[in-house]
């Protein structure tokens, strides 16, 4: 089933992407950084001069590192792997030295102080060389366990993922769901305990209370205020999630039986939602579709019929951005990108956007002619247009205002692209659009199954990790604390009781790989704030979900002002700029407004049902 909006968890590859404590080569060998002593540096001279040197150095290093990584990902060989690892080690060493040197400076101006703060955020490694090595070893080992794990001989991708998405057999889903957790978590848990201790040591050595506090320090507000903000916004959107949960539980009960689905205290089982972590429910759309005689819009057949290929699909997306008054993509984009899967070599196909500095911007993607990929292209180009707009900033500012901004740019555009009137305007829908309420509900439910269903998940992952890093959750409580959060936020029950060895967090890539996750919560919400603000500027009248900013240069200009800032201002200031003062913090209002038709429809469907679940 093709859905209207894809929700890709991709990474934009800029400077910060290379701040990883360890590099793993293709053959699994792992190399540890930081084995050379940091030179003693004279701690005098002005911060201004120091920062100038740092920015210049980062320009060179990040270009080198990106080139080496690009060479590897577009041609997987041991040789390219070694070169990429070498470049990354060089980068990591240089960063550690820069961080150490920066402690001698205070900075005079606001901008100098901000840049010195951003340098500090690049840190997190313990002072001790032995600790550094052990931390890197642990992360490599955990990632290796995760990425080589198999259940009954089958790896997660594509096999187990496909089973969860396509099987409608309760027992098969149950054994696959539990099986994946059995072959990952218990092996990762003992390593993770030690990893937490050493990560916290690194945070301490860099002046932070714990590793979670270091992560939250990147949001231009106190750690406590940030935590409070996220909880507040979650409570804003919770009623909508509860309605969706209630409807889905009833539909699944029709399919699998009430006794198996409508569990005590309002929960439903976690393994029936079409995804290993129940974070994306779009794969069970066929069980949930409100009006079966109204098909959801899918422009794939029209793309094929009109002879689109990878190149012309990327051109089509570019024309959307150009319609906002933006520059064409640089010429080198078309000569240096990898837009299709090459026949002669192995590559990493997962779509990603790359910034090499000096407006050298590329996409790596094995494009297929489908609606899903067309939307992914808009998402990836969103990264590139952000990169392009802030290209004149110094290296430390050539980044998103906050990590969640980068993921939200292209997604904001997608909200305009999927409007049927827009698809007709660009010739991908022929004939009249039957703009019926049934069509609207079918389309909104499809979007909600990714964009609403994901919200509790992207919140709970880092809430658990923050509690673990702070020591509030002790190792013996890792699993029970996790289960409690899944129940409290997602309203889902593990379908089989845990044993003392279980460690379900280890069954999700971002835990063993130690990739922060809360950015996806911010991105999921702020794209609707951007959309609402730009639609207002564009003079849109009518419901928010019918707005497309295509062709509106005034809205484009307003957004460009924010894009050009990069990370030179706080994210709150950047948001204020993008919304002409309407917003200066995360707000669940616009996402609720967007889904008004669906919410009203769900409330009607759920009349007479007891919605919600036990939350303490
Ligand atoms: Zn992305």
Describe the structure.
This protein has helices at 47-73, 78-102, 110-121, 129-148, 156-166, 170-182, 185-205, 211-216, 223-256, 258-261, 285-288, 300-305, 310-323, 331-336, 371-389, 403-417, 420-425, 437-451, 454-470, 478-490, 519-537, 553-565, 571-578, 589-594, 596-605; strands spanning 12-13, 22-24, 30-32, 150-151, 154-155, 268-269, 352-355, 361-364, 492-493. By secondary structure, it is mostly helical. The protein has a domain at 20-122. It has a 3-stranded mixed beta sheet, with helices on both faces. The chain has a two-stranded antiparallel ribbon with strand order 2-3. A two-stranded antiparallel ribbon has the order 4-5. The longest helix is centred in the middle third of the chain and has 34 residues, at 223-256. The chain binds zinc ion. Residues 8, 10, 12, 379, 383, 407 line the site of zinc ion. One of its GO terms (cellular component) is membrane.
